[in-house]
Specification:
alpha/beta; TIM Barrel; Rossmann fold; Immunoglobulin-like; 3 domains; eleven-stranded mixed beta sheet; six-stranded parallel beta sheet; globular
Length: about 700
């Protein structure tokens, strides 16, 4: 359970300067007069703030004209924060190029797909290929590193902010051609991989090859897929250039950037280039499944870290400002959501932002310190949480051991939503979140992986609608099953290879031998239409199974598999909807339709049971359970997402870190609505024993 990178000097710096669970948020002192700064640090100390992200959008304040720097205000605030025991996550301010840069060098501004060059007045408006932008952003990063590299307040580098800039200018067009030449070598190979024989697209010279721009009708999906790969790589190049510069000047200071669920950037690849993984999470209180989605995102971040620290870098203390209706977090729910991040492995609870802005686009976005000041409910909850978190400092560095993995892959996301398909309403993110929610409700720990990762630690692998699969992915899945793993894979998986080219041999070509069946025909259902599904006749592990199918039907023909459930009505009545196939020492279950949520959860539980995977602890519906472990302790998190009280019958003795109360095995622990308990016990507590729980 120890950190696998304890010999990494930058991880050691992180742990030394930021021990325990870090608390804080974005701080923008340049928006305020100096007299406010003293009040800020006083209140930060009252709330036990330990880290602030500083300078994220400060380029214009730090460099008011080309090559003329003004660090006087930053010197002052760095010293003031350190004098009050507050560390700094210092940003390179490249996310918002200043007006002088855009005016003097308009080519640094990004261009949209229609050829319109963006103006100033927002953020992320830069062309990632621009030599001037690259030069000036590296220059100011270097200036910051030279000036503050030895400052005692500096704990981390924050590279840019929420990278999401794509560009279609001539500079990016030229870079795209260079990227393609490096990837494919020859024009013949590119024509082959892009399938340019279709619609007379064959290229005869590299000068004819361009990034995607408006076309009449549908574009080439292979080109779109490669442009997505290129954009992610291009932005990552900006990150690694700054990282290398900063590491060269401050070799022991860790560097991160904040992910936020962006479709443009392959975070799985990016995370390997960062010392610490950071994430901005904004679940919508108006959506009933928002906390389940947050749990999926947190599991993803923990998995991306691979044992390195991960941080909840931004969340809202109350309401946000970007949705049509921005509901406030009800009393206790900000605290509950914060502990949810810690329960899923985060070693930080941070917010956007410290003090609510008086002007600008986000002035009605909540903050740790609202416009109403110290008398507001939000401030009182923020202050209480910051001081309470000290009680769980020892949880930092504790790890989560999962025996279940779910596959999420950016390249599949780009591909499956990038072409005309049988169902053009398909939402990959929602699909994976539904499958993860079934696991979340089953109270098991889940890692989020790609098929390029090592699958050997897992007993169960869930593969939701994985349309794009390379040959080595097929081999990895087959080995997982043959070695004794339990696979659950959903429809429209294994259809194309890495070039978005249909795998021959009948659907699903990449998985046909693994699932022991093939799909004769895709049969999407009209919007709103449903078909009942029941367990297949005869003895089956799904005896009594009833479900409602929607959106999609596969016309499945079993080969070496057996039916688990069948359609009850329609032109496929009596045909297999779910099949099971034994392969080697394991088994694969294939789901040929979109099951309703309850049926999907029942199926997931059946697969978990057969694999011998048990919940971390039994709990009533609506109480989330996770566990983090060190070599000396296990930490059981119980999070009540319900609107009423819930009772959990404990299977272990331990101490609730939040109350200091000693608890005994068999005791009925009552959780208030939005209540939290963190129970520390010896690590040898057996998992998978019979457990009970009751509603109260």
């Amino acid at each position: 359970m120890s950190d696998p990178r304890t010999n990494d000097p930058r991880i050691n710096t992180f742990r030394r300067r930021l021990p325990g669970v870090v608390y804080g948020g974005d701080y923008n002192p340049e928006q305020w007069p100096r007299e406010v700064w003293q009040e800020d640090v006083r209140l930060m100390r009252a709330a036990n703030v330990r880290l602030v992200s500083l300078g994220i959008f400060s380029w214009a304040a730090l460099e008011p004209a080309d090559g003329r720097f003004d660090f006087s205000w930053l010197d002052e605030i760095m010293d003031l924060l350190w004098a009050n025991g507050i560390h700094v996550d210092l940003a390179t301010p490249n996310a918002a190029p200043p007006p002088w840069l855009a005016t003097d060098f308009p080519e640094i501004l990004s261009v949209d797909r229609q050829g319109v060059r963006h103006g100033i007045g927002s953020r992320g408006h830069f062309c990632p290929s621009s030599p001037v932008y690259r030069d000036r952003s590296l220059r100011i990063a270097g200036e910051l590193a030279e000036r503050y590299g030895n400052h005692p307040a500096l704990a981390m580098w924050h590279l840019g902010n929420e990278y999401h800039s794509d560009c279609y200018c001539d500079l990016c067009d030229e870079r795209f051609r260079g990227w393609l030449r490096e990837r494919y070598g020859t024009l013949d190979e590119l024509n082959h991989r892009w399938g340019t024989a279709f619609w007379s697209q064959r290229y005869g010279d590299w000068s004819q090859v361009h990034l995607p721009r408006p076309v009449r009708g549908w574009g080439n999906p292979s080109r779109e897929l490669d442009f997505s790969r290129f954009t992610s790589d291009l932005l990552l190049e900006l990150v690694t250039r700054e990282r290398d510069l900063l590491h060269g000047i401050t070799p022991d200071v860790p560097a991160t950037t904040n992910f936020f669920g962006c479709r443009l950037t392959d975070s799985h690849r990016w995370a390997k280039e960062l010392d610490v993984v950071a994430f901005d999470c904004y679940p919508d209180p108006g959506k009933p499944d928002s906390m389940a989605v947050a749990a999926f995102q947190y599991d993803l971040m923990r998995s991306l870290g691979g044992g390195r620290p991960w941080m909840l870098m931004e969340q809202a203390a109350g309401a946000v400002s970007q949705w049509k209706t921005n509901q406030v977090k009800q009393p206790g729910r900000m605290r509950l959501g914060s502990y949810q991040a810690v329960a899923h492995g985060s070693d930080a609870v941070m917010f956007f932002q410290w003090r609510a802005s008086r002007q600008g686009q986000e002035k009605f976005h909540s903050a740790m310190l609202p416009h109403g000041g110290e008398k507001t409910r939000t401030w009182q909850e923020v202050k209480a949480l910051g001081n309470e978190l000290r009680a769980v400092d020892e949880v930092a560095t504790a790890r989560t051991r999962a025996r279940v993995a779910i596959v999420w892959d950016w390249q599949n996301w780009w591909a499956v939503e990038g072409c005309a398909h049988p169902d053009n309403t398909f939402d990959y993110r929602d699909t994976v979140a539904r499958h993860h929610r079934a696991l979340w409700n089953s109270q098991v720990a889940v890692d989020v992986v790609t098929l390029d990762d090592d699958l050997s630690p897992y007993r169960v692998l869930v593969v939701p609608n994985h349309y794009l699969m390379a040959r080595h992915h097929t081999a990895a899945v087959r080995k997982f099953v043959e070695d004794g793993g339990h696979l659950l894979v959903s429809y429209f998986s294994g259809i194309v290879d890495e070039d978005d080219r249909v795998v021959e041999g009948g659907y699903p070509g990449a998985l046909r031998e693994i699932i022991g069946a093939h799909v004769r025909e895709f049969s999407p259902l009209p919007a709103g239409a449903t078909v009942p599904v029941r367990a297949a006749p005869g003895p089956t592990p799904l005896d009594g199974f009833l479900a409602t199918a929607s959106a999609w039907q596969d016309d499945l023909e079993t080969e070496t598999a057996r039916p688990l459930a069948v359609y009850r009505e329609g032109h496929l009545a009596g045909g297999a909807a779910l099949v099971e196939h034994e392969l080697g020492r394991g088994r694969a279950v294939y789901v040929g339709t979109r099951l309703d949520d309850d049926a999907l959860e029942a199926l997931v539980r059946q697969v978990l049971d057969r694999a011998g995977v048990r919940p971390a602890h039994a709990a009533p519906r609506g109480v989330e359970v996770t566990e983090r472990r060190t070599e000396t302790s296990a930490y059981l998190f119980l999070l009540n997402h319900r609107q009423d009280k819930a009772t959990v019958t404990l299977d272990r003795s331990g101490t609730d870190l939040l109350t200091g109360r000693r608890l005994q095995a068999g005791e009925r622990l009552v959780l208030d609505a939005a209540g939290v308990a963190v129970v520390r016990s010896p690590p040898a507590t057996p998992q998978g024993a019979d457990r009970s729980s009751d509603d109260s």
